[in-house]
Amino acid sequence: MLQQILETMYIEPELLAELNEEQKQILFFKMRQEQIRRWKEKEEKLEQEERKPATKNGKSVNWLLAADNEVWVWVMGDGPGDKRYDQICDEIIAERARQQAQKEAGELRKEKEKELIRRFSVSLKREEKGVKDTLRQKEVEKKAEAEQATKAAAEHEQIQMELKQKEEEERRRQEEEIRHLEEERTQQLYINLKEAQEMVQKNEKEDPEWRESLRKSKAADERRRSIAKQARDDYKRLSLKAIERGKVSAISQNFQKPQLPVKPPVPPRRHAVNRKECDVRKDARHQKLSDNKQESIIRWFREQQIPLRAGYEKYCDVIAPWFHGIITRQEAEELLNKKGPGTFLIRISERMIGYCLSYRSSDGFKHFLIDSSKDSYTFFGVDQLQHVTLADLVEYHKDEPITLVGAELLLEPCGQCRDPPDYAYLFH
User: Fold this and answer.
1) Calpha distance 163→170 (Å, rounded)
2) 382, 359, 348, 365: which is closest to 24 by C-alpha?
């Protein structure tokens, strides 16, 4: 049962409600240990993957390292001798403007040449007369083109200077705004922190109820720690006492198991009972359990628990009167409700693979999970009290209480209330 919880790292709320306070603390400790173990395995796996050699095709990437054994990185503009980013941008812009001016001048020159050719074709007959005028006009046009190119370059340079000035002014304005916002935020945080400290100090001085609540909370925490420590010491003391008295077998890897038949005989039929006095119905049990889950629990009981004489009396092949099949918590409480304090039964849990001891106390009902995952039987979380059989566990707690706080002694077993008994189908 504990392995199943640690595997899924989840316990149902109804099952958690059946645990006492000490069992809950031990379950939290075990789950935390499992989380740490999984985290360490994951870290080791990641380290192994990082140490893997190059890929199958033999290709790999090696980074150039600097003097400090870190990856060498060059940032444009930060290296020695590098130009500043704004200087590089200015040079690129100027070069582009120069190329654009040359391109525009070339296009203009081509257009003028086409116009001259057209004029020359029209006035071919007056070629001799108009040669001088054409040459003069061409010179004038060349001068005009040169002046226009010079003027365009000057205008472009002026535009670039204006853009640069605007960018510089915008950058200074943004830096000023950011600095102003940071100062305002720092001042506001300081004011808020100061107000919070003053409020806390005021509450501590003016709210005696809060101080009293804090004191009680600390006292309760200290009391819980003391109770948990006392419970662990008491269980250890009781374990040693029980081993000395011979009522509990110390579990080890070499303890002898009794030679038992693989399949015990069919349990005897109980005497007939009045069905009107029994409110537990077999149909209700089958409605609450899914077929797959019930089949897995039955298979577990037949294959693993019957060879360990689960449910039998200690010294004979008779089913113990306190043993019940797969019944729910509500059905167990209905059976115990007709009995007095100290009455108990052991049932197979309908939620997980394992057993549950249901007990009738003077102030209500209690349910204790029994862990059977290590071929032994012990109450969940109490590793010191381990028993070879369920019968040994029952016999031991007839004299020793289950918990020191509740002082639960197993006084009277709660038997069956119907015929055939609710465990009959488990042994067929």
Assistant:
1) 10
2) 382
* Pair 300, 307: CB distance under 8 Å: no
Q: Give the pLDDT score at 382.
A: 47
Distance CA 150, CA 157 (A): 11
| Region of poorest pLDDT, from 108-122, 216-230, 338-352 | 216-230
Strands 364-371 and 355-361 come out as antiparallel
| DSSP H stretches of helix in 246-361 | 282-288, 291-300, 329-336
pLDDT 10s digits, 146-174: 888 888 888 888 888 988 898 899 888 88
Cβ count near 50 (within 10 Å): 7
Exposed / middle / buried, residue 358 (Cβ in 10 Å: 0-12, 13-18, 19+): buried
Burial 193-206 (b: 16+ CB within 10 A, else e): eeeeeeeeeeeeee
CA-based nearest residue to 94, from 169, 158, 168: 158
- The closest of 392, 406, 397 to 363, measured between CA atoms, is 406
Beta pairing class for 412-413 and 343-348: parallel
Contact 28, 380 (CB under 8 A): no
DSSP 386: -
Q: Is the peptide bond before 420 cis (omega within 30 degrees of 0)?
A: yes
Tell me the pLDDT tens digit for each residue of 19-28: 878 888 888 8
Q: What is the pLDDT of residue 384?
A: 56
pLDDT in tens, 85-105: 788 888 899 999 999 999 999
Q: pLDDT tens digits, residue range 240-264?
A: 665 655 544 444 333 334 444 334 4
Other beta carbons within 10 angstroms of residue 19's beta carbon come to: 19
**Which are the contacts of 319, defined by CB distance < 8 A and separation ≥ 6?**
267, 268, 311, 312, 313, 421, 423
Residues 6 or more apart whose CB falls under 8 angstroms from that of 15 comprise: 349, 351, 352, 369
